[in-house]
Amino acid sequence: MLELPEAVVIAEQVGTVLRGKRIESVTANRSPHKFAWFYGDPGGYNSLLRGNAIEGAVPCGGMVEIWAGPACILLGDGVSLRYFPAGERLPSKHQLLIEFDDSSSLVGSVQMYGGLWAFPAGEFDNQYYLVAKQKPSPLTDEFDYAYFGSLLEGEKLESLSAKAFLATGQRIPGLGNGVLQDILWAARIHPRRKVATLSDEELRILFRSV
Q1: Is residue 108 within 8 Å of residue 96, measured between CB atoms?
Q2: d(CA 182, CA 175)
Q3: Are 84 and 167 members of one domain?
Q4: 128 lies in a domain?
Q5: Which residue, of 111, 134, 157, is where some domain finishes?
Q6: Which contiguous run of DSSP H or E holds residue 107?
Q7: pLDDT at res. 158
Q8: pLDDT-derived band of residue 10, with 50, 70 and 90 as boundaries?
Q9: Running DSSP on this structure, what letter comes out for residue 161?
Q10: CA dist 170 to 106, 121, 165, Å?
Q11: Residue 140 covered by a domain
Q12: 87 by DSSP, 3-state: which?
């Protein structure tokens, strides 16, 4: 499942391998999946993306946003991406196939659930996406201790555990059950420990661990 660390790595790989490649054709929903989500009619992806060049990619919480001219491709939690150089055999089943002008391909597939959205830039109103774009990433300078402290304001701290604080409510987009275990272990804080019982020193240690 995609969380922030995986999204960062995949975005870097997309920028390195795919930047400059022009999209030749797109096939979406070839193998229908009940829990594969698309933007509008996936049959329109080809006309939206064909002819556009990949310009780069950025992590967006636990999602990867790929820029392709006036359009965006957003890949969410649960999507497995594979790149195939020219001449390699492609899988017969997939939910998204992007073929480039150099005969290489990018294949997206969903096992349990996942989003494979392609849309004109600025037109996707998914709340998780918008919040992830709005809030600073823990990997940026904007995510300082003052901002971290502001996430605690107005919360019902008496009943909120450290695990719930980190992984729920879209407080820190891209942090899920996987990465938070490492964060809490490094901070030496039990997942069920109530945030209200943490001292200022412990909160600072938790911040540095994040």
Answers
A1: yes
A2: 11
A3: no
A4: yes
A5: 134
A6: strand 105-110
A7: 62
A8: very high
A9: B
A10: 29, 23, 9
A11: no
A12: coil
Cα 161 to Cα 133: distance, rounded to the nearest angstrom: 26
Beta bridge partners of 116: 75
**Of 90, 114, 134, which residue is a domain's last?**
134
| Beta-carbon contacts of residue 200 (< 8 Å; ≥ 6 apart) | none
**Which DSSP helix (H) or strand (E) runs through 186?**
helix 177-187
Structure tokens, 99: 């073929």
pLDDT at 170: 87
**Domain range for 32:** 4-134
- Say if residue 125 is in the same domain as residue 174: no
pTM: 0.90
- What CATH number should be reported for the domain holding residue 40? 3.20.190.10
For residue range 53-100, list pLDDT tens digits in order. Answer: 999 999 999 999 999 999 999 999 889 999 999 999 999 999 999 999
Does 175 map to a domain? yes
Residue 188 to residue 206: CA distance in whole angstroms: 9
Pair (59, 84) in one structural domain:
yes
Q: What pLDDT, in 10s, does the model give residues 158-194?
A: 678 999 999 888 899 999 888 999 999 999 999 999 9
| pLDDT score for 118 | 98
What does the block give as tokens for 77?
């939690």
Mean pLDDT (the chain) is: 94
